[in-house]
Amino acid sequence: MALTRIGLAGLAVMGQNLALNIAEKGFPISVYNRTTSKVDETVQRAKAEGNLPVYGYHDPASFVNSIQKPRVVVMLVKAGAPVDQTIATLAAHLEHGDCIIDGGNEWYENTERREKAMEERGLLYLGMGVSGGEEGARNGPSLMPGGSLEAYKYIEDILLKVAAQVPDSGPCVTYIGKGGSGNFVKMVHNGIEYGDMQLIAEAYDVLKSVGKLTNSELQQVFSEWNKGELLSFLIEITADIFGIKDEQGDGYLVDKVLDKTGMKGTGKWTVQQAAELSVAAPTIEASLDSRFLSGLKDERVEASKIFQGDYSNGLPVDKAQLIEDVRQALYASKICSYAQGMNIIKAKSSEKGWGLNLGELARIWKGGCIIRAIFLDRIKKAYDRNSDLANLLVDPEFAQEIMDRQAAWRRVVCLAINNGVSTPGMSASLAYFDSYRRDRLPANLVQAQRDYFGAHTYERVDMPGSFHTEWFKTARNSMN
Ligand SMILES: NC(=O)c1ccc[n+]([C@@H]2O[C@H](COP(=O)([O-])OP(=O)(O)OC[C@H]3O[C@@H](n4cnc5c(N)ncnc54)[C@H](OP(=O)(O)O)[C@@H]3O)[C@@H](O)[C@H]2O)c1
């Protein structure tokens, strides 16, 4: 049998679907999995889905030897120790110049450590973020490869065909940059995804709890929103969710789903990185906190008994106005959330010297991935206008959009507060905007307090230098 073009190890949801996608694009592929039944399952699926050129192997040596040189093997296994174990299994059979690509949601420093270790053995290494879940992997994901440029060049032709294709802006893949940059960018993509999902959930909560919209009204509203500036995968699936009836009982399925959100860690890493880099990311942080609070279901049930009462302000609500206000608030909040995500990436890029192209990242997120949205085109254009943009908020187009929407945005946040409905993401976005746009913040007082109790010194607005005041003595003297 002729050698295959590429190999893929790890045939759970992502690996199996990506392997079929690669084969469908005309690249014969060898596949391997620790548990061999998944190998047979994948080969059978490949047959059923059009006799795709997928070749299964039950042992790593024959798997590796079935691939043409220089060999490229994509791994899609659980992040962490399983990746190290799979590398050890594969590397025993790989030769100088071969390449390993980790397609999992890996911590970027692990990728950098492995890239170095592989280099010492003459192997190339890439850490490639893959977004789009099962469907994306099968039909076109957004791919974020970082690490060895030489390795990227080996497989660029495959990636360009396998990635989601967006008319007018091309395949959703680009060489991200050196080291762990591909994993880092994928991590922040997931953080932004947390923010988007939280903001949509808050829009739902305000419309349902204050506006009293039914599920079928919500389905209509979200379908309508999906025709305009909010057009995106997440708005589309949200509209679908509101239309699904419960097959096991009365009513709609969404109302039967337990209000407890799971998570796998990339959102937490994003927030930790934001803190490490001293970048404010309050919307993404609020989305993470909301997941933590959602997990306290039993405590919340008990607290709801202690804090019983009618929190609604009882005022009549103009439904049409509310729907339009919430739409605008959601859009404005989303701009702030993306601004935060982009700033985390920008700060890391300059810390690590990665030279990341933010506009190009927005372009490859336009298709295939979970945050795909028409809105990303506007972000790309903003960075095309000015690649050094300090913050998305000050791009002239986004600035105007925020100005046009801020009245509605403030109405929604105030209405939610007055009705006891928490909107942590929208409120955090608004506070981010209100802090960022003000030339003077109350930080002068915080700095004075720091100098008072800790002699941390302060700068002055009217003269250069570093100052310290004996605040306590001065205050007591002035009392006497
Ligand atoms: N699921 C998604 O929607 C999604 C989206 C984007 C990215 N990702 C990322 O893509 C990667 C794969 O995700 P997934 O959901 O397809 O699979 P997963 O559930 O994260 O991992 C299962 C795979 O890992 C293998 N594995 C686990 N421990 C191993 C070990 N010690 N040695 C060798 N292999 C081991 C399993 O092999 P066995 O069959 O032998 O157990 C199986 O192939 C993960 O990093 C995930 O975070 C997932």
From TrEMBL:
UniProt keyword Cell division present: no
Uppermost EC category: oxidoreductase
Residues that hold NADP(+) according to the record: G10, L11, A12, V13, M14, G15, N33, R34, T35, V77, K78, A79, N105
Family to which the UniProt record says this protein belongs: Belongs to the 6-phosphogluconate dehydrogenase family.
Matching Gene3D superfamilies: 6-Phosphogluconate Dehydrogenase, domain 3, N-(1-d-carboxylethyl)-l-norvaline Dehydrogenase, domain 2, NAD(P)-binding Rossmann-like Domain
InterPro entries documented for this protein: 6-PGluconate_DH-like_C_sf (IPR008927), 6PGD_dom2 (IPR013328), 6PGDH_C (IPR006114), 6PGDH_Gnd/GntZ (IPR006113), 6PGDH_NADP-bd (IPR006115), NAD(P)-bd_dom_sf (IPR036291), Pgluconate_DH (IPR006183)
Molecular function, one GO term: NADP binding
Domain 6-phosphogluconate dehydrogenase C-terminal: 182-472
Record EC number: 1.1.1.44
Pathway in which this enzyme or protein is active: Carbohydrate degradation; pentose phosphate pathway; D-ribulose 5-phosphate from D-glucose 6-phosphate (oxidative stage): step 3/3
Stated role: Catalyzes the oxidative decarboxylation of 6-phosphogluconate to ribulose 5-phosphate and CO(2), with concomitant reduction of NADP to NADPH.
GN (gene name): ga18353
Catalytic activity: 6-phospho-D-gluconate + NADP(+) = D-ribulose 5-phosphate + CO2 + NADPH
Active-site feature positions: K186 (proton acceptor), E193 (proton donor)
GO biological process, one term: response to salt stress
Pfam families xref list: 6PGD (PF00393), NAD_binding_2 (PF03446)
Subunit structure: Homodimer.
Protein name in UniProt: 6-phosphogluconate dehydrogenase, decarboxylating
Record-linked SMART domains: 6PGD (SM01350)
Superkingdom assignment: Eukaryota
Assigned keywords, A-Z: Gluconate utilization, NADP, Oxidoreductase, Pentose shunt
Binding-site residues for substrate, renumbered to this chain: N105, S131, G132, G133, H189, N190, Y194, K264, R291, R450, H456
